[in-house]
Amino acid sequence: MSLTAAVRRWLSDDPDVTYECRNCGTTLESTERTCPVCGSIEIAEYDAAEYDAAGSDSA
């Protein structure tokens, strides 16, 4: 995880942001740094607002 992603994750309380383990797919809380299921530290961040904006640009 990049430093920028880690800082955004730490600062974000946005309900449109979803955190998911890249290893097993478990959805995590924004405060979790490791997956409680598999122990992975590879956490993906999905921001629904970014994807919605990107989708409307191509229309």
Report on this model:
The protein is α+β, with helices and mostly antiparallel strands and 59 residues long. It has helices at 3-11, 48-57; strands spanning 17-21, 27-28, 43-47. It has a three-stranded antiparallel β-sheet. The chain is globular and about 30 Å long.
E-strand count: 3
Strand arrangement across the biggest beta sheet: 2-1-3
Number of distinct helices: 2
Q: Which sheet architecture does the biggest sheet show?
A: 3 strands, antiparallel
Overall mean confidence score, pLDDT: 78
User: From the alpha-carbon coordinates, what is the Rg to the nearest angstrom?
Assistant: 12 Å
CA(first)-CA(last) distance: 31 Å
Helix content: 25-40%
Strand content: 15-25%
3D shape: globular
Name the structural class: alpha+beta
What are the secondary-structure elements, in order, as H or E? HEEEH
Write the layout of secondary structure elements.
Layout: H1 3-11, E1 17-21, E2 27-28, E3 43-47, H2 48-57
Antiparallel strand pairs: 1-2, 1-3
